[in-house]
Design a protein that fits this description.
The protein has about 210 residues and is of the alpha/beta class. It contains six helices and 13 strands. The chain starts with 6 loop residues before the first strand and ends with a helix.
């Protein structure tokens, strides 16, 4: 591994495909460590927050390692964080599952709720509609497909547009039954509802695009 490789911590809080994320990031050229160590997670060039399963369980696991505090402190200092799948969902204000509401990290307003579609879960390959000035999808074909596995999503983007001092987040959408948020780029905080680590060459390029910002 070259001395110029970026150090990335995959946050190990019990709810995520940490090994597949580690392998994908390593193939993209990062120096990767899977850990819940507070200092390592705080000081890494990039922090990747994976997530699979239920919103409430993921939040409980995240809090058990002070993950929500790590995310908040890193972002306050402009330190990059990327969330994947439920690791993206927990960045929103709340999640609603089976009528039960759970508080999220509240980095963005919005509610993670059940997808309204003829077939749930949304499982398999789908296209996305990214903003023209996206960095996350730079160099990727607009018709490229990414791998999704989820039954819940953010169906409404609630954050107001930016102003002269704050840039509006770049929001990417996908459709399964109805439109939902597929990815967000917001300064040092990026996230995808799909799994880049399972999305072949396109996912590898996307992770490389993130590493290039570190």
């Amino acid at each position: 591994m070259s001395t110029s490789a970026k150090n990335v911590v995959v946050l190990d809080y019990g709810f995520g495909n940490v090994r597949s994320a580690e392998r994908a990031l390593a193939r993209a050229g990062a120096d990767v460590e899977i850990t819940a160590d507070f200092d390592k997670a705080m000081n890494a060039d990039g922090l990747l927050v994976p997530g699979v399963g239920a919103f409430a369980a993921c939040m409980a696991g995240l809090k058990s390692v002070r993950g929500e505090w790590i995310i908040g402190r890193r972002l306050a200092g402009g330190r990059p964080v990327m969330g994947i799948c439920v690791g993206m969902q927990i960045l929103f204000a709340r999640g609603v599952e089976h009528g039960v509401e759970t508080e999220g990290c509240d980095e963005w307003p919005g509610t993670v709720e059940p997808l309204r579609a003829p077939v749930v879960p949304h499982m398999g390959w789908n296209t996305v509609k990214a903003p023209e000035d996206t960095k996350l999808f730079a160099g990727l074909d607009p018709d490229e497909r990414y791998y999704f596995v989820h039954s819940y999503a953010v169906r409404h983007w609630e954050l107001e547009v930016g102003n002269a001092h704050i840039r509006a987040p770049k929001v990417t959408w996908a459709t399964h039954g109805e439109p939902f948020v597929a990815a967000v780029e917001n300064g040092p905080l990026w996230a995808t509802q799909f799994h880049p680590e399972k999305s072949g060459d396109a996912g590898a390029q996307l992770l490389t695009n993130w590493l290039d910002t570190l």
